Amino acid sequence: MAGGRMSALSLPIDAGASVEFKPFRARTPLFTVSAGRVLVTLTLPERVSASDVEFARGLASQAAAYAVEVERLYRSGRRPSSGRSSGKGKAA
After folding, report:
1. Which of 18, 27, 42, 88 lies at a CB distance of 3.0 to 4.6 Å from 31, suitable for a disulfide?
2. Which of 47, 2, 37 is nearest to 17 (CA)?
3. Backbone φ and ψ of 77, nearest 5°
4. SS in 3 state form for the chain?
5. From CA 62, how far away is CA 74, in angstroms rounded?
6. What number of CA atoms fall less than 13 Å from residue 1's CA on the CB side?
7. CB 10 within 8 A of CB 84
């Protein structure tokens, strides 16, 4: 990300949270995360570039890694001490 300010959003996930992928024939797809009263929708420009493909692949990879870790925690019966991270995670 280029210089400047960065916004942060933390979504507490519970049983009511959801994700949805919506493909369309005549426009770019939508990817939505809903948690509580917050809805976040990822959109693309009408002309998709190589960097958009790279972002989508990174999103899929990180989501898969997140799923593996959540499943590991669930199977171990362990609960993390806090739902918030105190450090910065690796995004790529």
Report:
1. 42
2. 37
3. 75, 5
4. CCCCCCCCCCCCCCCCCEEEEECCCCCCCEEEEEECCEEEEECCCCCCCHHHHHHHHHHHHHHHHHHHHHHHHHHHCCCCCCCCCCCCCCCC
5. 18
6. 7
7. yes
Question: What's the length of the chain?
Answer: 92
Count of C-beta atoms within a 10 Å radius of residue 79: 9
Closest CA to 34 of 52, 44, 21: 21
pLDDT tens track, the chain, 92 positions: 567 899 999 999 999 999 999 999 999 999 999 999 999 999 999 999 999 999 999 999 999 999 999 999 999 997 766 555 544 444 44
Residue 55 is encoded by which pair of tokens? 């972002």
Apex 58 CA angle, 56 and 62, nearest 5: 120
